[in-house]
Amino acid sequence: MFIDPMIPHRLAQKLEDELADGEVLQWSGAPKPVLFDRSSALIWVFAIPWTAFAFFWTGMAFALTRGEEVDASMRLFFPLFGLPFILIGCGMLSVPFWRGRRLRNTVYAITDRRILILRAGKNTIVESVMPREIVKILRVEHADGTGSLRLMTGHVADFVDHTGPLRSQVFNRMLTDGIVIERVGQAKLVERKLQQLIDRVGD
What we know:
With 203 residues, this protein is an alpha+beta fold. It contains 5 helices and 9 strands. It has helices at residues 9-18, 44-64, 72-80, 83-104, 187-202, and strands spanning 25-29, 106-111, 115-119, 125-129, 134-141, 147-156, 159-161, 164-166, 174-184.
């Protein structure tokens, strides 16, 4: 199967380079491109009043230290105390834009061996998940068929004591983590491809 032509060329090239000899691509896709990630916009509920207050406090500190009776060092450094809080606020306000940028530099793939998530940027980050590690799939699908899939992964923890390998009834629990395939088209089809891979490996 060919790489999805909707994937930007530079990401498609990186994905192709990641495939091992003989590894067959079953599906590839990229998140729906967005400038602004609305799912992260909730942070603005906190970020807007934080940043507004930080600007207000810094402005008041500047105004109240302009008098000649105020020490010169206080006049300089007291207003600067608010700058870190302004920077933190601006950082929080920018989160949805940074998330949008990260999604635009992400590509997903399902091969006959694994699930791949590749993120390009200053560094290229590649995450591989083997089908035998997947214990649960959660699909969130929108009316237009786009959606996200959370893949819960895990393994059984083995513990060792002085008697040798011990699989404890107390600690023999599934240690779960998860990866997310975000904002892809035909989410139900992607889930079907994942399930086919899991079933094939399990046979």
